[in-house]
Amino acid sequence: MQPIFGHNAADTPQPIRAEVTGTLPDWLQGTLVRNGPGMFSVGETSYNHWFDGMALLHSFTIKDGEVYYRSKYLSSDTYKNNIKANRIVVSEFGTMAYPDPCKSIFAKVFSYFSNIIPDFTDNCLINIVKYGEDYYATTETNYFHRIDPYTLETLQKADYKEHIAVNLATSHPHYDKDGNTYNMGTSIIERGMPKYVVFKVPPKTTDDADTVLKNMETVCSVPCRSVLSPSYFHSFGMTDNYIVFLEQPFKLDIPRLATAFYRGVNWASCLKFSADESTLIHVIDRKTGKTVSTKFYTDALVVFHHINTYEEADHIVFDVIAYKDNSLYEMFYLENLLQESENFAEKNQLKSPPICQRFVLPLHTNEASAVGENLVKLQTTTATAVKEKEGSLYCKPEEICQGVELPRYNYEYNGKKYRYFYAARVEWKPFPTKIGKVDTETKQILEWAEENCWPAEPVFVPSPNAVEEDDGIILSSIISTDPQKQPFLLILDAKTFKEIARASINASLHLDLHGLFIPQHAPL
């Protein structure tokens, strides 16, 4: 088995021309920019978790039927400090590091009192986000970096806290037709109860990137139900009128976080899952900033990725990838991933498979309805919302399918009724072996797979003047466990899910997390 996890990738800052087989659509012109971990050891020190690796940006630029690949490490302070010290000196979520290996207990105590909320890493390895006309490498801390998406140069470090009171923020924002970007974060820096903050970044109006960020504004805030344990969240849903946010019982223990450095444990150990607690479903009116008064809740679950959210006949419909527990994160510790090849598949079994679930929330409830009555009136779903007491509905989802993660869809349908999404097929393993096209109406799944190949998140690119939802192509970067097979960019017809082309590269390519396609591009 060729090593996939845990080894350091060599970056390729100068573009490499790929070998294209098949035929690329003439209209396909642009750059696919990806982000993910690429360096897992520095000197004699190594990270504990796959999500800790230092950010490696990479891109496929498609121009006139040719494809060029390049990659470059994000020049974060974390990267620069680690390289300068020749060891890991900045803590990540699953790896606690101390700048001075001889740090005394007194210095650790001082650090504890000085950093009740720690200064998090700026190793932005999760996604590429657009604010205004600029692109940023992001993670889930308060830091993010403006980048040149074509050269992959790191341009400027930014801090949400300089513009809005959040310590943590998602890497999965939403964009509206006016060019606004909506995102969510957790505020644990103000006195009193922590809260969840929805904020908006307006379109770019000047050539100054800072101006866009300075114009960030709070849309609304929602108090956390627990003073000391705000919910972890990775994404949220948005329609034309509403924000949908899951306050799940997968929570960050603030006292444990505040003492993690002092106790010598990582931040991941400060997350806890409470299987006996419910999941609250917050519905926020985008125009008023007020939370809908009805209390929607469901069973305990863990959700990383929302798919799409839309309104239909006085209901909100939203689809998520849900787990029964938090075992997925545990599977990505490198000691689990770096098993001997013959034991890898057997030992790396997810305790809880990912399930695509559809929730349906009635927006207006009849006070005359009886306790125990299902208030969902849509005939196209088996999802229910049962009245428990006045103003409180217990929501039970409809299962669409199992074994999918990293979902993407035609973003032109964001907030609208849709039919298809595209995802990596992970089944009971924490790594992808196939790509799937899921039909949410028929629940059928078309698949692409090739022996010894691991695909990244599939990205949908619509055809020009597309009429049908799935009129377009799918892009996914593919790595292989076969040392004789080069990594490649896969291009599928989104309708048939048949391969139409691939672009093979003679370079090291890592399995990544998320990214986006930028139509057209600057010259190479």
Q: Describe it for me?
A:
The structure is a single chain. Helix 2 packs antiparallel against helix 4. Helices cover 10% and strands 40% of the residues. It has 524 residues and is mostly beta strands. The protein starts with 15 loop residues before the first strand and ends in a 5-residue tail after the last strand. It has one domain. It is built from seven helices and 38 strands. Strands 2, 33, 34, 35, 36 and 37 form a six-stranded antiparallel beta sheet that branches. Strands 17-18-21-22-27-26 form a six-stranded mixed beta sheet, with no helix packed on it. The protein has a five-stranded antiparallel beta sheet with strand order 1-7-6-3-38, with no helix packed on it. About 2% of the residues have low confidence.
Features:
single chain, 524 residues, mainly beta, six-stranded antiparallel sheet, six-stranded mixed sheet, 40% strand, globular
Write the SSE topology:
Blueprint: E1 16-17, E2 19-22, E3 30-39, E4 41-42, E5 45-46, E6 54-63, E7 66-73, H1 77-85, H2 105-114, E8 127-131, E9 134-138, E10 143-147, E11 154-159, E12 168-169, E13 174-175, E14 181-187, E15 195-201, H3 209-214, E16 217-223, E17 237-238, E18 242-247, E19 250-252, H4 254-263, E20 271-273, E21 279-285, E22 295-298, E23 302-312, E24 315-323, H5 327-331, H6 334-337, H7 341-347, E25 355-362, E26 384-389, E27 392-396, E28 398-402, E29 404-408, E30 420-425, E31 434-439, E32 445-448, E33 453-455, E34 459-462, E35 472-480, E36 488-493, E37 499-504, E38 514-519
Parallel strand pairs: 22-27
Antiparallel strand pairs: 1-7, 2-37, 3-6, 3-38, 4-5, 6-7, 8-9, 9-10, 10-11, 12-14, 13-14, 14-15, 15-16, 17-18, 18-21, 19-20, 21-22, 23-24, 24-25, 25-28, 26-27, 29-30, 30-31, 31-32, 33-35, 34-35, 35-36, 36-37
Helix pairs in contact: 2-4
